[in-house]
Amino acid sequence: MARAKKPAMPTENSPAKSPARQLGGLGKDDENPLLLRIQRILAVKRHVRHQRMFGGIAFFLHGNLVVGLWKGGLIARIGPQQAASALLQPQVSEFQPTTSGRAMKGWVVIEGGALAGPNQLEQWVALSVEFVETLPIKPDNEEPLEEWVERSLRFA
Questions:
Q1: Which side of the chain, N or C, has fewer Cβ within a 10 Å radius?
Q2: What's the confidence (pLDDT) of residue 150?
Q3: What contacts 114, CB < 8 A, 6 or more positions away?
Q4: Would you say residue 145 has pLDDT above 70?
Q5: DSSP string covering the chain, please?
Q6: Domains of the chain in sequence order
Q7: Which has the closest alpha carbon to 138: 66, 64, 68?
Q8: What is the dihedral of CA 145, 151, 152, 156, to 10 degrees?
Q9: Which pLDDT tens digit goes with each residue over 50-96?
Q10: Angle in degrees, CA 20, 23, 29, rounded to 5
Q11: What are the pLDDT digits (tens) for 10-40?
């Protein structure tokens, strides 16, 4: 029996949807306030996609993971130097996605309570975007190779 196709991810040409559904239907996460805030912050960027990862939702910019929701907080890829200073803050910890106890270098977890104030989430996302934009562009699994090469050359 043939398997049903996955629903297509929203594209720039997709018809407008309510803010809660713009991410392509993530079930119970659709109404998560942090999820909606991240989506609004990243809406100004092109080549952003999302997927379930680490038991949460991860956002990718140019194929590189930038931020995500994990265990009620935000994971942020900010680079090793920024992470060292960020870890001095009380509600920030190393990102350890597995039980091995090994932290991912350059990644931090910010507790949800530390993101409630005005501009706090925006600042963490901006810091993450700033770091990820320094990384090489990765091809999107759904993007034809020719388009990826053309896009990569535009940003080189």
A1: N
A2: 63
A3: 73, 89, 90, 91, 92, 120
A4: no
A5: -PPPPPPPPP-TTSPP--GGGTTS--GGGGG-HHHHHHHHHHTTSSSEEEEEETTEEEEEETTEEEEEEETTEEEEE--HHHHHHHTTSTTEEE---STT-PPPTTEEEE-GGGG-STTHHHHHHHHHHHHHTTSPP---TTS-HHHHHHHHHHH-
A6: 27-155 (3.90.1150.30)
A7: 64
A8: 160
A9: 888 878 899 999 999 999 998 889 999 999 999 999 999 999 999 98
A10: 60
A11: 333 333 333 333 334 444 555 688 898 999 9
- pLDDT per residue as tens digits for the range 105-115: 999 999 988 99
**Cα 59 from chain centroid?**
2
Place of tokens 């805030």: 37
- The pTM assigned to this predicted structure is 0.69
**Residue 14 CB coordination number (10 Å):** 11
Tell me, letter by letter, the H, E, C secondary structure of 50-89: EEEECCEEEEEECCEEEEEEECCEEEEECCHHHHHHHCCC
